[in-house]
């Protein structure tokens, strides 16, 4: 049977996304392969589809325990037998599942990496007929990654020693070139079996808002998007609680999630969000790793994440259905100090702390850049020479552009005259001419650039230095005490070969309505189908998106199917979904069409 036929019949999709078919074919040939695909790029199909074809069991190893149940429920919903074994499964239930797996009735088994290094479990696993090992979130295998887990690394050798001719598939969405090379070495994956589809999310609009009243911005934004699902990330528990209380006081149905809440409350808040009982949730970064909710339309960051990998992973939770979504970072430079504090207090060695500081520096550059935001991220992940996205806040910024070449030359000159041996803080104080950096053994007061910005504030000067760093005119030495270094671009500015332009600083407020457009469809019919979907979801105790995604409902509203064959042509509708829901949804569409016709006749 053709792979496209299986894709449509089992999963309801007409065509493969980039990279999917190539990876599936490698897996079915019994090879070791790796897929580097963006969040929402359809990584799970790359092992789910082969599992329906291969004779034995597909073993999926994932650190995301909370995501396992969602994946298993989704697979069982479309008629593909799957189960999971992790620390949340009681012993009597575990024994029953293990016997069921032994019988060969299960096609996919999801396990946590810690299970693999358990001797008793490994002995049981060795006796199974395994056709494919899929390693999800593979970036945590690499010590160069942002979320390295040693337990994940320890499982590689035992997995390699399992009997039989087993195919391997490693998948990740957030891996720099260094991490990709490390993973290929650890898993012994040849270059020709590595499929990279790129990290670009062309349905995601990245935005940065600087200098806004953050709580008020969030309230305005949420009020303007009341019918849309969204996540608000904050760095500290108290920030989460404060935003949660503020939104509740302003009549917003909101949830919260952080480690300070009881297990029961966290579970309830997550369920409320998944089942659309609330549309917005405020959380620390502890939330989201196990969330497969496809209809999240926006992600707001109250505080800046510590790494670009973490940031892109978190914003990737918006728009997983492929429809337009927004990711907005509310930025103030002071937010960086919180991360600096945590790095200094961490228990890691000096090399680990240095790595985190370098990643934080890159994140600060992102927050300050005036170049295309998506292009900045793609460059970070090793995708050079990409075009500007045309949809981020920098690409759409219509503020006046002013020439700041003269001020830039003063800053760059000061860095050079200070021997490129000092950081932003001292350089700022020299430029403004502060007494505490004058008349000491360094004799900064003798520099021609001392006090050259005496008419500016420390904040203004610091922001200019951050702008020059973010846009490549200044580099950093790295290390525990990073110093400013003149780059080649900066040298060209000093020599008069290049000018520096900067957008004029202006405060902004949250938009009063959605800036996201997602095509032409009947909104009233969409709401009717959403209500029907919710009825089925409640009867079956499933999140609504597991019945049909928003994208599938909107495709119904565009196609207006009238029979089973037309309904099967809807994106996301396979044979199992047709059997379960086709009759009810076709009837709802027919009733709506009839009511619209009656209304038109009355009007005429």
Automatic annotation (TrEMBL):
UniProt keyword Hydrolase present: yes
Keywords attached to this entry: ATP-binding, DNA damage, DNA recombination, DNA repair, DNA-binding, Helicase, Hydrolase, Isomerase, Metal-binding, Nucleotide-binding, Zinc
UniProt cross-references to InterPro entries, sorted A to Z: DEAD/DEAH_box_helicase_dom, DNA_helicase_ATP-dep_RecQ, DNA_helicase_ATP-dep_RecQ_bac, Helicase_ATP-bd, Helicase_C-like, HRDC-like_sf, HRDC_dom, HRDC_dom_sf
Single GO molecular function: metal ion binding
Cofactor(s) the protein needs: Mg(2+); Zn(2+)
Record's keyword annotation contains Cell wall biogenesis/degradation: no
Catalytic activity: Couples ATP hydrolysis with the unwinding of duplex DNA by translocating in the 3'-5' direction
Sequence ranges assigned to domain Helicase ATP-binding in this UniProt record: 24-193
Protein name: DNA helicase RecQ
Native source species: Companilactobacillus zhachilii
Gene name of this polypeptide: recQ
């Amino acid at each position: 049977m053709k792979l496209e036929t299986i894709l449509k019949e089992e999963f309801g999709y007409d065509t493969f996304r980039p990279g999917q078919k190539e990876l599936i074919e490698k897996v079915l040939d019994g090879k070791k392969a790796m897929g580097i695909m963006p969040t929402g790029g359809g990584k799970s199909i790359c092992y789910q589809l082969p599992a329906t074809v291969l004779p034995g069991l597909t073993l999926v190893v994932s650190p995301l325990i909370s995501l396992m149940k969602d994946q298993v429920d989704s697979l069982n919903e479309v008629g593909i037998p799957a189960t999971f074994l992790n620390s949340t499964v009681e012993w009597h239930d575990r024994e029953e599942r293990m016997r069921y797996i032994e019988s060969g009735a299960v096609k996919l088994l999801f396990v946590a990496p810690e299970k693999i290094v358990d001797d008793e479990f490994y002995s049981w696993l060795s006796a199974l007929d395994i056709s494919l090992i899929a390693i999800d979130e593979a970036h945590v295998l690499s010590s160069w990654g942002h979320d390295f887990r040693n337990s994940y690394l320890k499982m590689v050798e035992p997995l390699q020693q399992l009997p039989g001719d087993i195919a391997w598939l490693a998948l990740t969405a957030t891996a720099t070139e260094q991490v990709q090379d490390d993973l290929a070495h650890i898993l012994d994956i040849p270059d020709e079996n590595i499929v990279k589809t790129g990290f670009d999310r062309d349905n995601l609009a990245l935005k940065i808002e600087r200098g806004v009243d953050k709580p008020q911005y969030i309230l305005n934004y949420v009020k303007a998007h009341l019918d849309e699902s969204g996540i608000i990330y904050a760095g500290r528990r108290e920030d989460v609680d404060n935003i949660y209380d503020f939104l509740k006081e302003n009549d917003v149905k909101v949830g919260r999630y952080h480690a300070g809440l009881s297990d029961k409350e966290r579970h309830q808040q997550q369920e409320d969000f998944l089942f659309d009982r609330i549309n917005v949730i405020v959380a620390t970064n502890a939330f989201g790793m196990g969330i497969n909710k496809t209809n999240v339309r926006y992600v707001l960051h109250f505080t800046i994440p510590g790494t670009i990998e973490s940031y892109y992973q978190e914003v990737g939770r918006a728009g997983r259905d492929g429809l337009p979504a927004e990711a907005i970072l509310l930025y103030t430079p002071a937010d960086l100090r919180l991360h600096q504090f945590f790095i200094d207090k961490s228990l890691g060695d000096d090399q680990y702390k240095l790595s985190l500081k370098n990643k934080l520096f890159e994140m600060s550059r992102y927050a300050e850049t005036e170049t295309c935001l998506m292009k900045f991220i793609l460059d970070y992940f090793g995708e050079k020479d990409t075009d500007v996205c045309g949809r981020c806040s920098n690409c759409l910024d219509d503020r006046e552009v002013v020439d700041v070449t003269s001020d830039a030359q003063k800053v760059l000159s000061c860095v050079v005259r200070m021997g490129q041996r000092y950081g932003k803080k001292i350089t700022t104080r020299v430029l403004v001419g502060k007494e505490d950096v004058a008349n000491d053994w360094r004799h900064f007061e003798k520099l021609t650039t001392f006090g050259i910005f005496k008419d500016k504030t420390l904040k203004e000067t610091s922001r200019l230095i951050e702008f020059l760093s973010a846009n490549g005119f200044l580099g950093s030495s790295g290390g525990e005490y990073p110093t400013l270094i003149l780059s080649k671009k900066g040298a060209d500015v000093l020599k008069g070969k290049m000018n520096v332009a900067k957008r004029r600083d202006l405060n902004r407020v949250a938009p009063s309505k959605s800036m996201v457009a997602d095509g032409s469809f009947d909104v009233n019919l969409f709401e009717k189908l959403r209500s029907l979907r919710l009825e089925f979801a409640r009867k079956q105790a499933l999140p609504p998106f597991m019945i049909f995604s928003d994208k599938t409902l909107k495709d119904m509203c565009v196609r207006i199917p009238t029979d089973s064959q037309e309904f099967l042509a809807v994106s996301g509708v396979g044979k199992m979904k047709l059997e379960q829901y086709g009759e009810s949804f076709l009837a709802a569409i027919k009733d709506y069409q009839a009511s619209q016709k009656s209304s038109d006749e009355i009007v005429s």
